[in-house]
Design goal:
Elements lengths: L1 E3 L2 E3 L3 E3 L8 H9 L5 E2 L3 E2 H5 L3 H6 L9 E6 L3 H14 L3 E6 L4 H5 L10 H15 L5 E6 L6 H17 L3 E5 L13 H11 L3 E5 L5 H11 L3 E4 L9 H10 L9 H19 L1 H15 L6 H9 L4 H11 L18 H4 L4
Helix pairs in contact: 1-11, 4-6, 6-7, 9-10, 11-12, 12-13
């Protein structure tokens, strides 16, 4: 376990913030399968302050969603700080600052990973957020290892990192790719090891290329980070958290979830999504999750196509009845091993 300020995290396997994915139903299922800490999908600071449905959804933190981190993204300290205060008052246990998103439209608006090339502005945001909520909530920061591979970019990274800890943040998550890389090429775990040696006893969480339990354990062992944030690897695969816990205890890797177990979790995910966004939108939201769940099914390609074709609640139920029938003698389920088409979908982790 590790601590973020006064918040104790029971084990080092965290569900990361993922734009468009890590909503309340996804977080609940991750906890059900073993995650002890989860982050809400990244939220634009000004949306937290604008009255309306989006604000109500963001500021609704139910009793069973703890500990939970609220991740914010923006560029104006005058907006960032009050948005952080609103999320703190709503009940988020940790306020996380996003300086890592590599999506082009985000960078074009001077947000996310863009801030790594402007250390003075980034440090001012951290200071203002900490002043606003740091006495009542832990503040953390999400970063990539720089804007690019230049020496200047690395200096900016360590300038922001050191300043953030000096200000008082409780932990920093580091993704081992640069912003310019997006998701192309390997994540530099050797850089994570350098960062952890640099900060000593302060909390560093690692991110990047964590698609199975073995990789999660290996990152901790090879780099010395205090924990890992599992992002694309847990979409459609909440079982990864239980698998990580088993290996962490020294137990054998559990068998992949059976088709019947997959169907039970997908049905529960769909039910919770209907309650969260309404029956009319649930099918649209669940289609992207169904595509990812299909990767574990022994007939993955056919199941993927079936989820893509869904347009109504009845059709979604028909996919479950056809492809996840517990009475059928299905082959064993498969393990998730790659990032699939999330990059094309524009997911920001």
């Amino acid at each position: 376990m590790f601590r973020l300020g006064r918040v104790q995290i029971e084990h080092p396997f965290v569900q990361a913030a993922l734009s468009g994915y890590s909503d309340l139903p996804m977080r609940r299922l991750a906890r059900q399968c073993g995650a002890s800490y989860a982050l809400n999908e990244v939220v634009l600071d000004k949306l937290v302050l604008q009255k309306g449905r989006k604000q109500r959804v963001v500021l609704d933190v139910p009793p069973d969603d703890h500990p939970v981190g609220g991740q914010l993204m923006g560029s104006d300290p005058d907006v960032f700080a009050p948005a952080a205060a609103a999320m703190s008052e709503a009940g988020y246990d940790v306020i996380d600052i996003n300086f890592g998103c590599p999506v082009s439209k985000v960078l074009g608006r001077c947000r996310g990973g863009y801030m790594l090339s402007h250390p003075a502005e980034a440090i001012e945001i951290v200071r203002r957020v900490y002043d606003a909520v740091g006495r009542s909530r832990p503040v953390t920061v999400k970063m990539r290892r720089g804007m690019d591979d230049s020496a200047e970019s690395e200096r900016n990274f360590f300038m922001i990192l050191d300043a953030a800890f000096e200000i008082g943040v409780s932990g920093v998550t580091v993704h081992g790719r640069t912003v310019r890389q997006k998701y192309v090429g390997p994540s530099r775990w050797d850089f994570l090891a350098r960062v952890k040696r640099h900060v000593g006893g302060r909390v560093i969480l690692g991110s990047g290329d964590l698609f199975d339990a073995e990789a999660c354990l290996r990152m901790i062992e090879e780099t010395g980070v205090d924990g890992v944030t599992i992002a694309r690897g847990c979409i459609g695969n909440p079982w990864i958290f239980g698998e990580c816990l088993a290996l962490h205890r020294g137990d054998p890797l559990p068998a992949p979830p059976t088709v019947a177990e997959q169907g039970r979790i997908i049905a529960e995910h769909y039910r919770q999504t209907q309650a969260h966004v309404g029956a009319g939108k649930a099918g649209q939201v669940m289609r992207k999750f169904g595509i990812k769940y299909s990767e574990l099914h022994p007939a993955g390609r056919q199941v993927r196509d079936a989820f893509i074709a869904v347009t109504t609640p009845e059709e979604f139920q028909q996919v479950l009845e056809t492809w996840y029938d517990p009475a059928r003698d299905w082959p064993p389920g498969r393990r998730k091993t790659g990032c699939g088409d999330l990059v094309a979908a524009g997911a920001c982790e």
